[in-house]
Write a structure and sequence with these properties.
Layout (H helix, E strand, L loop, with lengths): L1 H23 L10 E3 H5 L8 H8 L22 E4 L2 E2 L15 E7 L1 H8 L7 E6 L10
Parallel strand pairs: 2-5
Antiparallel strand pairs: 1-4, 2-3, 4-5
Amino acid sequence: MRLLLRIAYGASLFGLAACGKAAGSSAHPAPEHDVLTRQEIMASTASTGDLLQAIQSLRPNFLAVHPSAHSTYSAAALPLAVYISGVRQSGGVEALKSINAGNVATVRYLDPTAAQNQFGFRATGGALVVTLDDPSKNPEGD
């Protein structure tokens, strides 16, 4: 009985070590579905355009209309809020055209519930939170 337990224990340790090594050995980890990183932008052809083009190319689901669980309005009435370096942009997604994709550190998508929890009723349709490499290149907000 002890021998069987030792064999089972050893096999489980070997299996865990193999799983850990396989997960950590990847040179390119899988992208997070709600974050677009500078590395992803720079590795694509979208790095030479504006941020809106990059998002349309790499994460078009960020721009899809997502109805809010907290809202009684129709999905069409729920615009996506855009925050660039912590400043809400009055132009919404159009403000992304003024940002060079190569100057972006990250773009994080917040679903309507998370956006409303973080930013309140002004983000009922979800939010894009953009962090720039050089915050001095931030466009004016509202």
